[in-house]
Design a protein that fits this description.
There is one protein chain. This protein is an all-alpha fold. The protein has one domain (3-58): 434 Repressor (Amino-terminal Domain) (Orthogonal Bundle). It contains five helices and no strands. The protein has helices at 3-7, 12-19, 23-30, 38-47, 54-58.
């Protein structure tokens, strides 16, 4: 799931506080104008209970190419 989809109907300011960034930066991430660093991507994945994967955030063009097998 893309971050933009996850955030529909949610308070972006509250989400930003939860992941340790600003609402404006969350908006940039949701619009895919910016990519998060690895640490922020991991926090987003944790905050969304895995609904938005860090691989989708870090490698939006090929998220499965770099998939970590568990």
């Amino acid at each position: 799931m893309q971050l933009r989809e996850y955030l529909k109907g949610k308070d972006r300011k509250e989400f930003a506080c939860k992941i340790g960034t600003t609402k404006n930066y969350v908006n940039l991430l949701a619009c895919m104008d910016r990519r998060p660093g690895p640490n922020l991507a991991a926090r987003i994945e944790q905050a969304t209970d895995g609904q938005v994967s860090r691989m989708e955030l870090l490698y939006p063009e090929e998220p499965n190419k770099y998939r970590i097998m568990k």
